[in-house]
Design a protein that fits this description.
- By secondary structure, the protein is mainly alpha-helical.
- A hairpin with a 2-residue loop joins strand 5 and strand 6.
- The radius of gyration is 21 Å and the shape is globular.
- It starts with a helix and ends with a strand.
Length: about 200
Amino acid sequence: ILGEWFASNKLSLSPAKCKYAVMSSKLKTQSESTKFEIYNKEMKEIRENTDSTNNPLVGLLVTERLKYDDQINSMLGKLRSGIYALRANKFLPTFAKKNIYFATMHSHLGYAGVILGCAPKKLINKVRSIQNSAIRILGDVKYNANTDALYKKFGILKVDDIFTYQACGYGWRFFHKDLPKAIEDLMEISSERALQIRTKKPH
């Protein structure tokens, strides 16, 4: 049936490249694995403790439990590569090191912040720690130096501020009717006076 729906809408799906996930209302891994076929070919199931634990969806690693661990760990690996690049070029002028930072680290920190900003604090703390290390390299200071003044000096947002900035951007677009309808329909005003918004509760 799904294959017929794709065909009738002039779409196609590659069973070799796509995966599927069975999600429960409590976001728990189902006790038994399932089988799913399309075009008479079996697709892989996204399932914890298997060789198919996640699948990228527009740059985000999705699991059947919608956990953030895989995505954050993937990000940490990319950020560590940025740290390596900064250390390897620590004798360059500050402006050059800032370019390296924005090219190798900020691009990852700023991707999908509205979603990643909801990750557990213990995961965000790991991201924050690596960003602080990068700022210390930019400032050529000790490994345990305070970084607050350095963020201001270099005009760089902390990861928490990046997430907040992006969330505020979505809020502004919501109040100005500038969001795609599919996203706008998921949100509602919780306080007219305070201009607060929230996601709608499912009926």
